[in-house]
Amino acid sequence: MTIIPMTDAHWPAVKAIYEAGIATGNATFETQAPAWEAWDTAHLGHSRLVAVDEAGTVRGWAALSPVSSRCVYGGVAEISVYIAAEARGQGVGRQVLQALIADSEAHGIWTLQAGTFEENKASIGLHTKAGFRVIGHRERIGQHHGVWRNTVQMERRSPTVGVA
Q1: Can you spell out the DSSP letters for 126-160?
Q2: Residue 51: what pLDDT?
Q3: Low-confidence ranges of the chain (pLDDT < 70)
């Protein structure tokens, strides 16, 4: 598995993986993937990565979204990590998340945040193994298909960026 920067050429595969995640009902509050232009605008221009296999097939992706437009939060980002169903349990998530952490730090990000449905134990485990800690739970934070959902809030503080 190789981790490389995501380009717009990867979007069809990235979108398909995202849509498969949406279809699980436990990946996001979103109910459909946006067009490339909307996705591109909503994510930071850096730290967009894809995991590709030997054949060049995208098996997973990760990207960052800003948490605020206020400059004081310029080093804080929310992560998205999605792995193709057929690649789960093979270490792809670990590899792409570790690469995302390194790339985010290279771009001055000191805090990564993740909000995960409490039922998504695999994602919570992945984040925990990557150094994220649970900082709270949001109860009935939003409805998904008419059902109130709870999320687990996690964060990872960089040991090298944003320290005195």
Answers
A1: HHHHTT-EEEEEEEEEEEETTEEEEEEEEEEE-SS
A2: 98
A3: none
Query: What DSSP letter does each residue of 6-39 carry, written as one string?
Result: --GGGHHHHHHHHHHHHHHTSS-S-SSPPPHHHH
Name beta bridge partners: 50.
Answer: 4, 61
The DSSP secondary-structure symbol of 83 reads E
The pLDDT value given to residue 164: 74
Phi first, then psi, for residue 142 (nearest 5°) are: -165, 165
Closest to 113 in 3D by CA, of 70, 142, 151, 163: 151
Is residue 109 classed as helix, strand or coil in its secondary structure? Answer: coil
Note the pTM of the prediction, 2 decimals: 0.94
Exposed (0-12), middle (13-18) or buried (19+): which is 83, by Cβ within 10 Å? buried
For residue 67, count other CB atoms closer than 10 A to its CB. Answer: 15
Position 37: which residue type? E
Beta-bridged to residue 4, according to DSSP, are 50
CA 93 to chain CA centroid, nearest Å: 10
Within a 10 A sphere around the Cβ of 69, how many other Cβ atoms? 7
C-alpha gyration radius of the chain? 15
**Edge to edge, what strands does the sheet with 76-83 contain?**
2-5, 49-52, 58-66, 76-83, 111-117, 147-157, 133-144
